[in-house]
């Protein structure tokens, strides 16, 4: 594997889609690394020292130097371990478009589905679901724009935007398990539905998939902390 001789550590949480995103990128680029699971309810000294600004995962520690924020880490991994297919498009416009939609996922989609999880009432949850579906509808358009009719946002193989969105798919399943809501549906977004099935069957998608039971338990703990049952 590339990076075999490097000192690479990843501070993460199996429940964090952002940490999952980085693990997928490392796997896609064939980077060997030591994974250090973090207790996000009782944060350790290494995490606090490595990310003193936000105190959150993921943090990639390469040769003793920390890199924070998942999208920045994915770009770092792509540049440092440059062998094989790039995770970002070759042309500047394609890279700009991929970065725009990846930021959209984090700024709009993540808080949208998190709102479903945190909703205190069925009425509130229905409103949050409608808002999330509107956000996802635009991702259907982004897939058509970026993929050029191929299997993934990046074309023939998984790339930057595939990872940005794909790391959320496990939480979509957890929300369906808990509340019976469906965020990506073949009737509303057929392109995304087919993409999600393909993505989940890739090695990167399968290797780091969090266990559903643990995800649901974690989600219920988060709801209990917020005063919801």
Verbal overview:
- This protein has a 4-stranded mixed β-sheet, covered by helices on one side.
- 57% of the residues lie in helices and 7% in strands.
- It is built from 10 helices and 4 strands.
- The chain is α+β, with helices and mostly antiparallel strands and 229 residues long.
- The protein has 2 domains: 73 residues, Glutaredoxin, CATH 3.40.30; 134 residues, Up-down Bundle (Glutathione S-transferase Yfyf (Class Pi), Chain A, domain 2), CATH 1.20.1050.10.
- The N and C termini lie far apart (45 Å).
- Helix 4 packs antiparallel against helix 5.
- Strand 3 and strand 4 form a beta hairpin.
Features:
4 strands, Glutathione S-transferase Yfyf (Class Pi), Chain A, domain 2, about 55% helix, alpha+beta, Glutaredoxin, 2 domains, about 230 residues, Glutathione S-transferase, Omega/Tau-like
